[in-house]
Amino acid sequence: MQGTQIRTNIKTGTVGTKGFFSWFAEAQATTRETASGVDQLMPVRVQLCDWLVRAVSRDSRIYDYHNDYFRLGSIERRLYELAHCYCRDEEYEMPLEMLGAKIGSTSPLRTLKSQLKKIAAENKMPSYSIEVREVVPEVPARDKLGRRVGKPETVVVMKPKDRLTGSRAALAA
């Protein structure tokens, strides 16, 4: 992480930073040699960059993930990230083609659609659920002879799961 350079123009509070930074201003790992001649890692000292310290301590801008995020598969992780970004408190609808591009899928759309339906049925994504819907346009497209053409558009709806579960939901009722 020390060698990673991030380009930013993000403001934290009233202070803006345009330029590059690394997550760590400094990092130091101390080792000591054991009696058997093996290097043993001692405490590691890390100094965070000023931008990160300011963002967390002054502005409380922390982007957190649910602990179960790390148990998800690659597609589910990317879906969680998109849902976490787009639908904090309400549902968000995205065309299948756009979602495929955002998750980096190289599969044909019919395969992706099938995978998404399976993920929706399993409903293991923490904090969010997805639904695959077919949307029929109100005004169907027509060809040169006036015949209806095209098929329904597939959209993926991401929405927050009910925050109350189990006994807390019973108490609220």
Any chance you could write out the topology, listing elements then pairs?
Layout (H helix, E strand, L loop, with lengths): L5 E3 L2 E2 L2 E2 L2 E3 L2 E10 L5 E10 L1 H8 L16 H13 L5 E4 H8 L5 H14 L5 E8 L5 E2 L5 E2 L3 E8 L5 H7 L1
Antiparallel strand pairs: 1-4, 2-3, 5-6, 7-11, 8-11, 9-10
What keyword list fits this structure?
31% strand, 5 helices, 173 residues, alpha+beta, two-stranded antiparallel sheet, three-stranded antiparallel β-sheet, 29% helix, 11 strands, disordered C terminus
Q: What is this structure, in a nutshell?
A:
The chain is an alpha+beta fold and 173 residues long. 29% of the residues lie in helices and 31% in strands.
Shape, per Cα inertia axes? elongated
How confident is the prediction overall: mean pLDDT? 84
Q: Helical element count?
A: 5
Radius of gyration computed on alpha carbons = 24 Å
Largest sheet: 3 strands, antiparallel
What does this 3D model show about the protein?
The structure is a single chain. A hairpin with a 5-residue loop joins β9 (141-142) and β10 (148-149). A 3-stranded antiparallel beta sheet has the order 7-11-8. The protein has a two-stranded antiparallel sheet with strand order 1-4. The protein is 29% helix and 31% strand. It has 5 helices and 11 strands. It has helices at 50-57, 74-86, 96-103, 109-122, 166-172; strands spanning 6-8, 11-12, 15-16, 19-21, 24-33, 39-48, 92-95, 128-135, 141-142, 148-149, 153-160. The protein is of the alpha+beta class and 173 residues long.
